[in-house]
Amino acid sequence: MTQRRARLGVMGGTFDPIHHGHLVAASEVAARFDLDEVVFVPTGAPSFKQDVPVTPAEHRYLMTVIATASNPRFTVSRVDIDRPGLTYTVDTLRDLAADRPDADLYFITGADAIAQLLSWKDSAELFERARFVAVTRPGHTLSVAGLPADRVSQWEIPALAISSTDVRARARDGKPVWYLVPDGVVQYIAKHGLYRGSQS
Ligand SMILES: Nc1ncnc2c1ncn2[C@@H]1O[C@H](COP(=O)(O)OP(=O)(O)OP(=O)(O)O)[C@@H](O)[C@H]1O
Ligand SMILES: O=C(O)c1ccc[n+]([C@@H]2O[C@H](COP(=O)([O-])O)[C@@H](O)[C@H]2O)c1
Fold it and tell me: Going by fewer Cβ within 10 Å, which terminus of the chain is more open, N or C?
């Protein structure tokens, strides 16, 4: 009997901060595609956010660890935050493939990101290295025109109209962020005074 190859979900994001929209997306895709594990990969220096302030990577990494700790199938990788220079997904997938040659990779991303996939660095290599799963995101229409149909899937998830931008704005304005992000992340934000002076 041939053994089924491991299936590794890859959830890349700035996670500034991680919120329940990210966690629901990962959980739903894991169930639909029978993934053995989902690795969350906080970006180091996002190439497309060079003109906006991003919280230091260690804070974003630790919040991601706290948010995923209770799920035995969720893990967190430092590959993007430990690699010098700008973060590109092709490097993420190369590093993860070297670490996990036994696994097929499923990159999980939102409807807003999928529309831009062809403009990502080395996009042809991206489709060789991973399948892409585009999850619906409130307010964004899925546009998969021009993408390889055998490597890109869509999956509808329960709409959670949460964004990191909104969480940062609420924290800055002294509004509650309970239940938008995991409890431990609420406490981490308060303990470290994150987003107080943010421009969101
Ligand atoms: N509520 C949500 N539902 C589904 N997918 C989401 C949701 N929020 C974010 N995503 C997806 O998760 C991935 C990582 O998102 P990211 O860390 O940039 O969070 P964000 O909420 O989009 O942040 P920001 O508001 O700062 O741009 C992206 O592909 C994004 O589309
Ligand atoms: O590789 C690229 O060129 C590229 C361009 C834009 C976004 N990405 C990746 O898409 C993921 C989601 O990005 P974001 O901005 O929604 O947090 C994250 O893992 C980024 O590294 C990657």
Answer: N
Distance between CA atoms of residues 95 and 118, nearest Å: 21
Q: Give domain status of residue 82, yes or no.
A: yes
Q: Is the CB of 89 under 6 A from ligand 2?
A: yes
Amino acid at 46: P
Atom number of ligand 2 nearest to Cα 80: 21
Domain of 92?
6-159
Based on the structure, what is the number of domains in the chain?
A: 1
User: Given this model, what pLDDT does residue 198 score?
Assistant: 65
Cα–Cα distance measured from residue 194 to residue 196, given in angstroms and rounded to the nearest whole number: 6
pTM of the model: 0.96
Tens of pLDDT, residues 28-83: 999 999 999 999 999 998 887 778 899 999 999 999 999 999 999 999 999 999 99
Nearest residue (CA) to ligand 2, atom 19? 12
74 ligand 2 Cβ < 6 A: no
